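Q: Predict the bound structure with zinc ion.
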Amino acid sequence: MTKAKKPVEPLVEVPACPFATTVSPLDYGDIITVKANKDTSTREFRIHEGLLTHFSGYFRGALKNHWIEGQAKIIQMDVEEVVLEMFYCWLYSKKLYFSSPKGDADADIPLDFEDIVDAYIFADVQVIPQFGNATLDLLFQKVTQRWKFPWWVLDVTYEKTTEYSKLRQFLVNNAADAYNFGGMRENKHCYPRDFLVDVIERLKDQSIYPGQRADKDGDKYVQQQCKGMCKYHDHSNLEKVGAPTND
Ligand SMILES: [Zn+2]
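A: Predicted complex:
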């Protein structure tokens, strides 16, 4: 990106998704133990079954079909602890992390770009669309706060998602709109060919040069993107809150 900014900016506020749903605490039900199997983590997360089955297609299937181990209700997952921690925080608070007791808006997001992208991929695989939407909102906030395009997450993104992925779409649009591709030659091995094709198509469609949108007026661009984050969300099977069902 081209605009000079302070290293840490206040977080931009992304409007709440009008399709977001909640679970009544009366429907929380039993406790399930979820363990992260990747790395050497032995950490266990004790999570209410009603939250898991409400938000995740994977957990709906796993808990219905008794794939869980024994009476203790334990599910082992091939995932990093940091991702499971984000999921746990989000289930109970709709936030992916806690930076300070007051939720200080000026604090840096204590998660790497890689963690956020891993969480999106986890949401994609385990069919947790609303959690995936939250990871994209956070990725946008992090990109904006650091004013940096995370080219180093492109490889994993293009390896682990499909061409219809909203994560791909977000990264392609952000790169085309707001990134000047400085230093690209030194890191050229980090740019998947499909990503470059996607970016060129976006530039052609929009008749813009790389970074043009943010070049013109960075703050205005950020505000516009903020309001439009829903276009990257997966709203399947969700109804807009307060709207007729055929909306
Ligand atoms: Zn939305």
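A: The domain at 31-96+107-232 is CATH 3.30.710.10 (Potassium Channel Kv1.1; Chain A).
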